[in-house]
């Protein structure tokens, strides 16, 4: 499973991506980034079969983009 942390800056309208993380690392990074109220933070995942979705605090979802951390 591959995880990507997506960080959206509310003021600038930009997105930053952090890739190459496992599940625990992505959750830790999302929690850290979400401390900034000016950011919306999401975690997306892709499995070995190419299926993808988003990871919420309460588990995986196929709702795009899921709930911000």
Automatic annotation (TrEMBL):
Top-level lineage group: Bacteria
Protein name as catalogued: DUF3892 domain-containing protein
Species of provenance: Christensenella massiliensis
